[in-house]
Amino acid sequence: MSIRECRPIRRRAFLTMMAVAALTSLCPASAADGLIAVKSPRAPAETMNRLESVVKQRGLTIFARIDHAAGAAKVGKTLRPTEVLIFGNPQGGTPFMECAQTVGIDLPLKALVWTDAAGQVWLGYNDPAFLAERHGATQCPAVENLKRALAAIAQEAVGP
Prior knowledge:
By secondary structure, the chain is an alpha+beta fold. It has one domain: TT1751-like domain (TATA-Binding Protein), CATH 3.30.310. It is built from six helices and five strands.
């Protein structure tokens, strides 16, 4: 291969590396498949309190608020702030389960607030499109409604 033939390959490799670097800066490196993570400018407790308030204001049922760090402390372990809010309502979940009843294993909805190793607070939730793919319901009309609702809830919880 001549030098002239190598340049386009190196340029493509460079552009590919730059694209990967840009994409990986959007979410934490440890983000799981299907997890949408949004940075919060607030402390973890305040972020979770705001999330809980937004969920209640929208008329959703809160089933549980689980403090994993408190649970870890009960067994002598230390865990950075990590809380889960489990919430939902039949109006949003039932249409999703009508498309694929097995999606019920992933409902009600959940949101996680955690602090990463660098001290950044995150609010994360399962992407409904990922859940739809997992359960073979990619054409389900309920997915877009859930995506919009969860994104709006998250933005309101971390916003000004």
